[in-house]
Amino acid sequence: MRKWFRRRPVEAVFIACFVASFLGLLYLAIFTKQGFRIGPELAVLAALALLTELWPVSIFRRGLRITFTLPFLVGIVVVSGPIMAVAIDCMISLLAAWAMSRAVTRNLGGLWIGVNVGVAALASTLAAFAWQFAGSPRLHIDLLLFVQVASYVVAYGISNYVLVATIDRIVHRKSIAESLMLHWRPNALTVLLYAFAAIVVAFLASSGFAAWAAMTIIPIAVLRYSLKMQSRYIDQYYDTISALSMMLQRVHPYTLGHLRRVSRVAEDVALRLGLSARRANLVKEAAILHDIGKIGINEAILDKPGKLTDEEFDHVKQHSTFGALILEPAEAFSPMVRWIRHHHERPDGTGYPDQLSDLEIPIESKIIAVVDAFDAMTGGEDGKDRRTYRDPMTVAEALAELERCSSTQFDKNVVFAFRETVMGASA
Amino acid sequence: MIPLSGTAILWLSIGVCTVATVTILFYSRIAMPRRLEERLRQSIQVFGTAIELRFPSHKGLTERVVVLARLIGKRLKLSEKTLVTMQMAAELRDIGLCSIPYSLVHEKSTYNWDDADWSTYYRHAEVSGAMLELVPSLRHLAPIVRLHHTDFRGTGTEIFPSGEDIPVEARILNVVCEYVWLSRLQGSLLSRDSIIRGRGTAFDPAVVDSLLEVLTSNSGTRVREPYEALNC
């Protein structure tokens, strides 16, 4: 059983979702005597919900789809009760997922549809509980509706978010909750609009004007447009980074694996040193771009076996200045320009280009310096990534070398954090 | 205690919705596109700096290429959208130059390049195209950039299109890039002769004609020639 769990985690989550939501519904149906009513308003609201579900925004090319069904779901709850809302939510997400998986060329299969429906079922069941327990008879009838709608929206949002983050974590084995926080920060106005649209739909539905809820399509279309613009804005930033690193790869074929490893480890070290997730992410991007100045350097000298002459070394030394020069015009890269310029400074003040002292070097530069040096020494797993001028070392040898050079070439604390990161990863 | 009836809450919510909708619409229709364009301009500048560091001799070519290409495009009655696409393609056309060996550019004068060196150089168009192909938001520029050094008459192979099958932006850029580079090397008169010699073979005749009109006409669109031959 445990072995199966470990091999098929997504199926396990999917089954758990269904079992949990089934039990929850059973509880609601038996103990709170929730029934459901069917009427023409229900048909209108369900049609609107299906329409918005089929009209998603794909955000940041990460497979994350955002739909705007929630206001209409709230209307369904008001008109026909929370159990009906669970059923309708399951149905429309099944239909939409089926349509999507036909439209998308990737082979996602039945499992993806199942997971989508499972998440919808569990989220709406949990929200139904919130609806049930927010209703206190002491409140005025209108205020009661207001409180119930608010708690339904909040519960649905949180449980949906947590479930999606959990599944992403299982599938991609990285902390998506953190990166979601980073990339998907809806501004306060967006959330406000969304929540108030739900309240409007609820009040219209409760006073028998459910058909007027169709008007909420307008703010939802606006919301959709603004999200699309925001995602274009962020895509463009990542496209610039990927195009720049492609240019660098054309100059030095060995750097692709190097860049990937360095950026991954640099982010981990930054988090371990207590930098915020946002800053650690910037360190990761800076680590991808740290050698971008090598575009202006003669690749024959960089790949030269043996020791460099003074003149050649002076030429190679220019690359950190060049990197800062290249990234300077872009406002998006402004925090990392300084880090890249100083990633070859040394705490004892003998580095280049500016011979900064220990206190003047940014911590991000120190992180990049340590991670870069370690990867250069171990040379990666691939034979292709090996530096031509030296045989690769083992991890232990490289760590000992870092220790030996700490507080002259590298920062002591960064080396310590790096050691912990590497040991933690291999253990 | 404020009396909070259902109707009051409803109208309040409708009001908040309307205000938020209008604000978000304003923000994403007016403020956001402007910021996006600014960012795009900056990142194109980043690519330009990177290429200038590897090829110091290419400094300042792109500005002239953009000016001339826009004027020719206007003469050929291209839409503003096409002109903007062409401008972006002109600014990104040389990112593939980074695949050319450093020693070829810095240790050998172009006068001493043999055919092998020249074909290495002209491979940059294809490399740039392949790189842009991998970047989703710039993918629409890839065919223009890939063909911006392709002969109008065709290369004799089936791989590259010829004649009118080449996008008009690529045909314009082909003429303009060649003219701007040659005029830096040998002055505008000799380079104008070279362009005329290539009319109908390497270059699209219509584009060559409009380039000559742009360069020689007495109307307001005439481009003043800088005496760059002296700077070589």
How are the SSEs placed, and which strands pair?
The complex is a heterodimer of chains A (427) and B (232).
Chain A: H1 2-7, H2 9-31, H3 40-53, E1 57-59, E2 64-66, H4 70-80, H5 82-103, H6 109-134, H7 141-172, H8 176-183, H9 188-206, H10 217-251, H11 255-272, H12 277-289, H13 299-302, H14 310-317, H15 319-327, H16 334-341, H17 363-378, H18 395-405, H19 412-426
Antiparallel strand pairs in A: 1-2
Chain B: H1 6-54, H2 61-75, H3 80-92, H4 102-106, H5 115-122, H6 124-133, H7 142-146, H8 168-186, H9 188-197, H10 205-216
Q: What sequence of helices (H) and strands (E) makes up the elements of chain A?
A: HHHEEHHHHHHHHHHHHHHHH
What level of helicity do the residues of chain A show?
Answer: 55-70%
**Widest β-sheet, arrangement of strands of chain A:** 1-2
The helical percent of chain B reads: 55-70%
**Count of DSSP H/I helices of chain B:** 10
What is Rg of chain A? Answer: 27 Å
Rg estimate of chain B, integer Å: 24 Å
Structural class of chain A: mainly alpha
Number of helices of chain A: 19
Oligomer: heterodimer
End-to-end CA span of chain B: 83 Å
Structure description:
The complex is a heterodimer of chains A (427) and B (232). Chain A is mainly α and 427 residues long. Helix content of chain A is 70%, strand content 1%. Chain A contains 19 helices and two strands. A two-stranded antiparallel ribbon of chain A has the order 1-2. Chain A is elongated, with a radius of gyration of 27 Å. The two termini of chain A are 26 Å apart. Chain B is mainly alpha-helical. Chain B has ten helices and no strands. Residues 227-232 of chain B have low confidence and may be disordered. At the A-B interface, helix 7, helix 9, helix 10 and helix 15 of A face helix 1, helix 4 and helix 6 of B.
Descriptive keywords:
heterodimer, A: 427 residues, mainly alpha, two-stranded antiparallel sheet, 2 strands, 1% strand, B: 232 residues, 10 helices, elongated, disordered C terminus
